Amino acid sequence: MVHRSRRRSLTVVIPVLVAMSGCQPGAPRKPPAQAERPPAAAPGAAAADISHGEAAVGPAGVPAPIAAEAPPSAPGHLKHLRLEISHAPITIDQGVTYDAWTFGGGVPGPALRATVGDTVDFTLVNKAPMPHSMDFHAAEIAPSRYYVNVNPGDSIHYRFVPRVPGVFMYHCGTAPVAAHIANGMYGALVVDPVVPRPKAHEFVLVQSEFYLSPEDSSHRTRSLDWPKVLDQAPDYVVFNGRSAQYAKHPISVPVGELIRIYVVNAGPNRISSFHVVGGIFERVFLDATTSSPLTGVQTVMVPVGGGAIFETRLREAGTYPFVTHAFADATKGAIGMFEAGKP
Ligand code: CU
Ligand code: CU
């Protein structure tokens, strides 16, 4: 049943990161020198002249760089998933590129889908210059056997049967995990119940953070600032890997029809308080809750490493922001728009 081809290496990753960041992961840190920063007022002008206008709203109908639509489920009960790890530059904001560590060349990794009882046949190929690994929150298997480091040029192959419906995070579990997640190694796996959910317009949103090294003239692409990770002080908080992309390119939905949003919070540090402005969630399913969802709720927390399924309807034509209602994080990019009633 299980075939593995890999070498274990637990020793290489940490020295690489120490050299990269100049900071010992796990070492105590001094608090940031708050007193050195002069006091500053909040900006007086808003980016957009609508409620919750933290970001300029672009034209409806122009697709965002990363599609938010949930993928369809592939036919059959044997789901072959193959992911390649690579280090690649990504764009996280206009004019801001970042040296990311990726599943499949982008951040987040591809949205995956299976049904309870399917066999997921998974292959991970490491084309990056350092060890990485894969941890599926949807799987119930021994991390000591499967969530092990895969060396550069090597691969691992294993199978699991998702038993619990929901939307689940997957991520690299190589230490220090905060660095591997902050660099982009995460995604969402939707596990459908055997009896399908009602038909809806479905989207996948993965919230996450970026912690940027200073820009310098020799290297314009930013990389990880490890002390900022430890201080939980991200420069960006985003949905699907790019700042405010669904405000600049709103997601078109029909008025009054059921919308289902699969939200995963990859973190690595900030809790999501997911909210749709102008909407109330008919139902919210926390992980495996299928029979008794939360009903009639305004904001629901998605913990770091957690997922939840949100269902709502937008009752009249117009623009509806979706945010984490922790508004410092919305200001840092975790905001998007649904455009109801436009083609
Ligand atoms: Cu990794
Ligand atoms: Cu995890």
How does this model look, in words?
- The strands form four sheets. Strands 10-9-12-17-14-15 form a six-stranded mixed sheet. The chain has a five-stranded mixed sheet with strand order 11-19-18-13-16. The protein has a four-stranded mixed sheet with strand order 2-1-4-6, with no helix packed on it.
- A hairpin with a 7-residue loop joins strand 14 (281-286) and strand 15.
- It starts with 12 loop residues before the first helix and ends with a strand.
- It contains six helices and 19 strands.
- The protein is mainly beta and 343 residues long.
- The radius of gyration is 20 Å and the shape is globular.
- The chain has two domains: 66-194, Sandwich (Immunoglobulin-like); 202-340, Sandwich (Immunoglobulin-like), CATH 2.60.40.420.
- The structure holds copper (II) ion (2 copies).
- One copper (II) ion binds at residues 135, 137, 171, 305.
Write the layout of secondary structure elements.
Blueprint: H1 13-21, E1 78-93, E2 96-103, E3 112-115, E4 119-126, E5 135-136, H2 143-146, E6 155-160, E7 166-171, H3 177-182, E8 186-192, E9 201-210, H4 226-230, E10 236-239, H5 245-248, E11 251-253, E12 259-267, E13 272-276, E14 281-286, E15 294-297, E16 299-302, E17 306-312, E18 318-324, H6 327-331, E19 335-340
Parallel strand pairs: 1-4, 3-8, 9-12, 11-19
Antiparallel strand pairs: 1-2, 4-6, 5-7, 7-8, 9-10, 12-17, 13-16, 13-18, 14-15, 14-17, 18-19
The structure holds copper (II) ion (2 copies).
